[in-house]
Amino acid sequence: MTQLTSAGGSKAKPSGPGGAPPKLHTSIADAYEVVQELGCCVLEAALDRQERAAVLTRLRDQAAAENEHGLASRYLSFAHKSRVPDGPNQRVWNLISKGEEFRRLAMHPLATEITEHFLGPDRLLSNMSGNIAGPGCSALHLHHDQGYLIDRVHGVATVTVIWMLTDFTTANGATRVVEGSHRLGPGAAPPEGSDVVVEAPAGSALIMDGRTFHGTCLNISDSYRFGIVAHYVLPFIRQQENFAMSLDDATEKALSPELRRLLGFRVWKTLGAVATPQEEDLVQRQYPRIGTLASAAGRAGVQAAKATASRPARRDG
Ligand SMILES: O=C(O)CCC(=O)C(=O)O
């Protein structure tokens, strides 16, 4: 178990409506308990200085390059609905294809332990994106990441980890959470004003049960807020990112076995096989892929029939 510092008995209590920011924790043992009680937990110093610097540098560079190449996904708000060329929110999607730093982060020991604890060892990465909130970025409404399962699955089926690469503050668009909202039940929404702001220093991680309502503040500061949102799911849930379609060939070929498993390139209890039922094992892209075929025997039969049909009628006598 990754121990960030010594465990410190959590006795988790919600902060209360519009109350103080959630307490910062430092041990994974606390996180298990606090996520279970409150639906979310903030772990301070989850990334060490070097890890954070490496991921932040790569994300900044990728975001700048996507801008330069006219490929950036930019929006007016965190909600990434209205795409606009100079929007103050930039999402850098599909990070797995965009750098070793991100591939390592998806399998960070802390994320691995927490997601395995709640979802089991076969859980999948559903999506991992960079979320950059620039000055003027408007807020994200309260929602929960498991919303697509709402009436079908009531337990925890997904876990989200938000890596804070810069300080998260009320002014720069920090995430907001409604503690305890993972227990609301299907269809219920938290009362107005029950959210609290997750203010935490760069390097912290917010861990959320997928049923926990959360959103963001608007960014009224003059600085950029950099975060990475990683969403993990039970192994039978369809992933948000269709990695089989979106990974570039070079990345796919070089994936470690651990990452292949995490992305779902494996058979799990008959699900995810390639063309034929397979043992529970990793799968590869398959070449050639078999499409519609006609057998030689079948073709010979068809040609014989055509020849008979087109032969002129025999005149006897
Ligand atoms: O970046 C954040 O603070 C939250 C993002 C979020 O809630 C989402 O992408 O669903």
Q: Can you describe what's shown?
A:
The protein has helices spanning 28-38, 49-68, 100-106, 109-119, 243-246, 249-254, 257-263, 296-310; strands at 24-25, 40-43, 73-75, 89-92, 124-133, 158-164, 175-177, 196-197, 205-209, 214-216, 225-233. It is α+β, with helices and mostly antiparallel strands and 317 residues long. Mean pLDDT is 89; it is low at 1-10. The protein has one domain (24-263): q2cbj1_9rhob like domain (Jelly Rolls, Sandwich). The termini are far apart. Helix content is 26%, strand content 16%. The structure holds 2-oxoglutaric acid (AKG).
List the SSEs and their pairings.
Blueprint: E1 24-25, H1 28-38, E2 40-43, H2 49-68, E3 73-75, E4 89-92, H3 100-106, H4 109-119, E5 124-133, E6 158-164, E7 175-177, E8 196-197, E9 205-209, E10 214-216, E11 225-233, H5 243-246, H6 249-254, H7 257-263, H8 296-310
Parallel strand pairs: 1-2
Antiparallel strand pairs: 2-9, 3-4, 4-5, 5-11, 6-9, 6-11, 7-8, 7-10
